[in-house]
Amino acid sequence: MARITRANAFLVDLEPKVVRTDAIQSFKSQETIFVVLHDADGAQGMGYSYTIGDGGPSVLALLQKTLLPRLMGQDADHIEAVWRDLLFCSHATAVGPIMSLALAAIDTALWDMRGHKTGLPLHVLAGGAKSTVPMYTTEGGWLHLPPKALVEDAKAAKADGFRGSKVKIGTPTVSGDAARLEAVRSALGDEYEIMTDANQSMTAAEAKRRVPMLERLNIAWFEEPLPSDDIAGHARLQAQSRVPIAVGESLYSLGQFADYVSANACEIVQVDVARVGGVTPWLKVAHMAEGHNMSVCPHFLMELHVSLVCAVPNAPWLEYIPQLEDIAAPMARKGGMALAPVAPGLGIDWDHEKLAALTLSGSAFEIKEGQQ
């Protein structure tokens, strides 16, 4: 039995390198919550989770007061049993973002530990479907950028080997969104993929008005047009649209994804490993999508998602938004292709000196077996 004997946790706040805006918010920072687990055999695993500027201390408090004390003495090899036990020990706080984000920090640490023990990288442990994946970039498609800047970024991305760009939409008028997309399509040609993201900003009527324009421009997908809990609205919109509806970054459980799939309310599944609760539920969502002949195109966290999209056969894209440069070596890529890490575990090469220097004062704590 690989008994868990000690856990450390801390928070690092990372500011974005560029201004990131969409139709409902601005990306303030990446509050990155880290968990380091140790077992009785001396093995170690390091996992993480994140927010976009609010709620990080709440995730850390749930870990410190409830989840990590409960974890002590449990068998690190039984990841499914651990995940379910932690979920149900605090079931009154689930399903929701704080619980899922806290679970993800623990779950990714357990998978990292398993990788170090076996000597296998995560993409092999979790399935081993492929070793590379095409990327599309979101980093130059933010809503505040004018059409000229969108075109310049997309041209640079295409020259670097990227096969697509995401453009944020949700301006006050259909013509405003059309101008942004038409500029990119005209400059990049018909073979370059353009994804769109409305970030839950639209009414059903406004989303419906944009569908003919998106169809005309051969847009790859229409992401989060409506509030994430409006399953019926997304289902109606999907029935009216030849452009696939994409959802998932604001869903927090396998059951929520199942509701979308059973309602035919989307065609692209964008499960986020942190927001759904870790690698364990992420894989379940991905395989459920595979069973319905649907693609998985995950949200954000490219340094972790690269391993997961290479683990499964139905993940054609990785979203490129770099955020860990200050605390980790750059993700391996060749032009617009991301390469699955070959190092054991998550395969992220953390800079521990920088992590220590950037740890938010007062955030670090330790939990030990027998001292809860």
Structural description of this entry:
The protein has about 375 residues and is an alpha/beta fold. The chain has 2 domains: about 5-120 and about 350-370, Enolase-like, domain 1 (2-Layer Sandwich), CATH 3.30.390.10; about 125-340, Enolase-like C-terminal domain (TIM Barrel, Alpha-Beta Barrel). It contains 12 helices and 14 strands. Strands 5-6-7-8-9-10 form a 6-stranded parallel sheet. The protein has a 4-stranded antiparallel sheet with strand order 3-2-1-14. A 4-stranded mixed sheet has the order 11-4-13-12, covered by helices on one side. The longest helix is centred in the N-terminal third of the chain and has 22 residues, at about 95-120.
Summarize the structure.
Helices cover 38% and strands 18% of the residues. The protein has helices at residues 56-71, 79-89, 97-118, 122-125, 147-159, 174-188, 204-216, 231-240, 254-262, 279-291, 302-309, 352-358; strands at 4-14, 30-39, 44-51, 132-137, 164-168, 193-197, 222-223, 245-247, 268-269, 295-296, 318-320, 333-334, 337-339, 365-368.
Q: SS-based structural class?
A: alpha/beta
Please tell me what the overall shape is.
globular
Mean pLDDT reading:
96
- The number of distinct helices, counting runs of at least 4 residues, comes to 12
Helix share, percent? 25-40%
